[in-house]
Amino acid sequence: MFCLPQESLAIAAGLLYYWYEVNEMKLKENNLIPKEWGNLSRLDSANYICGYCGKEVGSDIGFYYSSEWQPSSAVYICPHCGRPSYKEGAKMLPGAAYGIPIEGLPDNVQEIYDEARNSYKAGAFTGVILISRKILANTAIYFGADDGKGFVYYVDYLVNNGYVPSKSRDWIDKIRTEGNSATHSQTSKNKEDAKLILDFVQMLLMINFKFNSDYQNEEQ
Description:
Pfam families: DUF4145. By secondary structure, the chain is α+β, with helices and mostly antiparallel strands. Helix content is 51%, strand content 15%.
């Protein structure tokens, strides 16, 4: 069985993540993606969502570390894309982006929606809430609201023009209050706060962009 020190595993996982992100496109173009990892060990099976390819997978191969003083750690190899994920206890890194990818969004909405999902993936939950406010503002601007206004103006614009159901104003108000708290309070936001707000933002974008786009395509 091939075993690495715990610190080496963490460093290796980070370096491998960087290596794949920077070089994957070039490697694909030259057909140089490695087909197999060397010196792999059999591990306790782990089910997880791969932070690279987004697939829900189960893996039992990789590299491991364990001792009586520290929690067991391992690098798992995704059976779908072949990339490494670092597992320590119940935590798997990189994590999975929350929510679903949505196609057909305006560029200024798409970029920050992806940023919010990736912030959740990185565990930056306060950032998710602050970015969600920006998503609502950019969505309102896309539909004709004036640029450079305050958040309440954009909330009113979305509600008054039917882009958000009036009964959902409480949800938007939660984004406002949580955003204010994230900006002015020293307490960081937690995973559940971020998940609830991303759920609402995702619903808003699906209704106003994906569902409307799909309906219009069927009508043509």
